Protein: Retrovirus-related Pol polyprotein from transposon TNT 1-94
Organism: Cajanus cajan
Amino acid sequence: MHAFPSSVDDYVLWHKRLGYFSYSTLKQINSNGLIQNLPSIKDDVDVCDACQFGKQCRLSFPIVASWRAIEKLLLIHTGVCGPMSIASLNGRKYDNFTGMSWVFFLKQKSIENEASYQIKKLRSDNGTKYTYVDQLEGFQVPGSEDKVYKLHKALYGLKQAPRAWYSRIDGYLLQKEFQRSENEATLYVKKSNNEVQLIVSLYVDDLLVIGNESNSLNQFKKDMMKEFEMTNLGEMKYFLGMEISQQNDGIFISQRKYALEILKKFHMGKCKPVTTPLVVNENFSKNDGENSADAFVYRSIIGSLLYLTVTKPYLMFAANLLSRFMHSPSLVHFGAAKRFLRYIRSTTDYGLYFLKNESGELQGYVNNDWAESIDDSKSTSEYVFSFDSFIFSWNSKKQNVVAQSLVEAKYISTTTAANQAIWLRKILLDVGQIQDEATIIWVDNKYAISIAKNPVQHGITKHINVKFHAIREVEKSKEIRLEHCSSEEQIVDIMTKALSNGQFEILRSRLGVLKKNLKEEC
């Protein structure tokens, strides 16, 4: 047996004799000389073990102010990055309440009834992300070169900027009691007593505001200028290359300045004008000519001409046709594009005139060619929609399938137009223009109308894709009504093929395209 000596400092004994006084109190007693023979106390004194155990206390649990789930599936957190599958130090994974690590879709509805549990609340951050930018060279913080800046304001040039701006303006407009259209995410409508008071349309960071009451309109402008850094440009006169002339009886929209800029850009400002954009009965193919044209210049011409169709719907067919050869254009295609520019030279002052009306009726016209494409024998569908006396929606596009007959091509075109009509009816409903009656679509083929109204004709329609038969449902529900018109009354014929000068001008005027006499500017 071995014995080891131990020593205890005298001040520790005095600490225990006096009932475990604190060492700071013992120092004060010693300095005042209240106790004789009290040894001096060191500055670096160890804490007494008895004091640690005797003076510790158990605090009550903190009161949880936030709401907590008390049942299974009462609260579920979702996020792009979680729940994480990485196990913690004790081998467990992230779990909020239920003890489950993953969520699976139910194979049968009866499983939910057997478990008697349903999701009550779903919490998500809507997939938002923080935006970071690298430190610029020459302005890096010494010692923190590997760190990035967290962005507080969206800047042009960042891919996150449009989303950040839309989220900001969307929240503000909803706060101001605007209703976002379910059919067009950039359309907002504010109503008062079930009547449309204000309409706001967004295009990136440009806003178009429409209102019947000047007081509400002016107040909205003031509120927006207080909330955002913006400029009030007043009554719209120029927007995205379009010139708008607002008059008492209507609105005239043209692209005169843009058309002149195109002609100047491609050195066609002094070219000899022509009366039609295309030559009658002239067809084009990808194999037209062996000599290739400058693809970059050709694409630039066609891209510029396509934007002209915003106010010139009669150019849709020519622009759509020539755009099919942008991959490898030949000199034949380039010559057709130059003729197109020569026609623009003669129609720079033409535009759409929208007459003022209190209410209107939505109508559509649909037409197509049949297997006119030399390369793949596909047809081209065209439609226009008018609201009372003016057209405001049009399209010309090659069909995705090869139609085996003219009737089938017409049936496919009619279905495409019907889909557009359903969407337009919803937009008009959002802005207070309710369409109580079925929307009439004029078709110049009785057999196509018969197929849409009579689903029994299985023998001649069984090969048609099922999606094109959707027109039968909307026709049956009286949202759409197909009516026959003669080929002479079909105004969409101008968007189907190249026409002679006389026919072209007649149909162009029926589309609502007029010439405005502009005064020479000083």
Notes: The longest helix spans residues 406-430. Confidence is low (pLDDT under 50) at residues 518-522. The first strand starts at residue 76 and ends at 77.
